[in-house]
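G., before I forget:
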Amino acid sequence: MNIKFIIFIGAAVMIMLLALFVGPRTINPFGMTDTEREILFNIRLPRVVVAMLMGMALGASGAILQGVLRNPLADPYILGISSGASLAAAVGLLSGFYFFGSLSVPLTAFIGAVLVSLLVGAFGWKRGGLWPERLLLAGIGLNFLFSAVLMLLLSVSSDEGLRRAVLWMFGDLSMADWSLIPTASAFVVLGLGIAFARSKALNALILGDEFAHSLGFAVQRERLLMFSAMALMTSASVSLGGTIGFIGLLMPHIARFLLGADNRVLVPASAIAGGAFLCLADLIGRSIMPPMELPSGTVTAIIGAPYFLYLLRRKDVLSV
Amino acid sequence: MSSAYNGPILGLSEMSFHYPGDRLIVDKLSFSIGNGEFIGLLGANGSGKSTILKLASGMLRPTSGTIKLWDKPLSTYRNKDRAKLLCYFPQHLDVNVPFTVREIVGMGLYPYDIPPQMTVDEAMEMVGLGEKAGTYVTNLSGGERRRVFIAMTLIQGAGLLLLDEPLANLDIRYQIEFLRLLRELQRKKGISIVMALHDINLALQFEKVMLIKDGSILGIGSPDTVLSGEMIKRAFDVNIEVRKSDRGDAYITHEKWV
């Protein structure tokens, strides 16, 4: 295995350990008190696992989508999946859907994300296949529609619960616990598995449909598989902790810059980078001015945007 | 392939094609490609050259008619098996992701579990890009990019190459070098080639050419008969004169534009 990739994994593990033991209260792993053990296993660990899962899902989804849409500026949210999920959660709350208790918001968000993915897929479907331009345009259109309806609901609603839920949708890991982790990890692992297994096909799709066909891939089937993997992971991520921006867009570019564009490396590397980056953003967000916590989505954007602009200056990396 | 089979490598019979609700692009076309043939495909813009090559490669399904690759219908092949026998080179190359030259050339090995004889380094050398193995394709000129994909096509090692204007964007040196390379492959390895091209002077040196108009074959055979001034006028609607040089090579002169 490439030495750079090993260093990459090492750095991610370091960040994860840092996020576990450092924070408003620093924990010494070799001499924990009962309270510290409680904090570690019931608060920090689920939070770090959720951050890893979400970041991995978003990073890998970004890499997949940039390949499938052949567009280096694509990210999973451009297809309207997050705004659709937020809208579904809001509608669920307004109509009094509390049937699953604290799981109601993530569950409705997940259902919304899956429905939007299907809707985008339906709009992107023509002549027996998914077409990148149609997917992108359908996603952008639906994104505007859902955001507008959500704003409308917010402006006419006085429901305090709804406002809280919408804040949560903007990317908040402070409520993370173990309850959603098993299901969400199953989706993320499945999505990652599909993407990794078909990473050669993704490389070929980037060269264009004709070359992908000539190299022996069933273009439409591969695109559908990739789209499904992306939809599974993004939906799982939204249900875990809402909408966290910039990871899906940025991580594939960083991974490409450090390790190259071959998707056999890029997909896992974007996932690892995404997981580590969100852990770091969350660590910063909860440590910088305790007891107040900054939403992780804001931190990722504040760190991510300048770095992205720096990459934009390097024409050979972004090539747009 | 089975040694008992002596028929054409690719046989198209009564093949027609149109997009749903659209005009007929290919009209009851029949022709076959024999083992080791090198055919130049000519026709005006929009005459159906690219569509014919896409149909022959299995990218598009004909509306009616049949296509056979060796002794089996093309549509019955598994994708990977087809890719080892038939390679299609599209007209438009558009990659905006920074793959390196080596990475793209290496993709030619994707259909194989056990790589064929040619190595990635050999393929890159053949197109003069050995020095640029680690360069991002996004930093290469149009002609260099085309050579990267030509190397990928060579390493894929298919016995039948369907090339849609591979000479576009290449300067005259690489046009000639690429044609020589293909000729060598055809002679040494018995590869069959169909190449769409626009340069009639280059086409005059082919052994066999096919002239297309409105999705039908206007003429097929040696350039002496197919690429006459009269036939070219019918296909391209332009006045051309075919002359012979002192060495006996055919060349064209066309009507003045000034």
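The interface with chain A takes residues 20, 54, 57-59, 79-84, 86-90, 92-100, 103-104, 107-108, 110-111, 136, 138-139, 149, 152, 156 of chain B (CB under 8 Å). The longest strand of chain B covers residues 24-33.

More on Monday.
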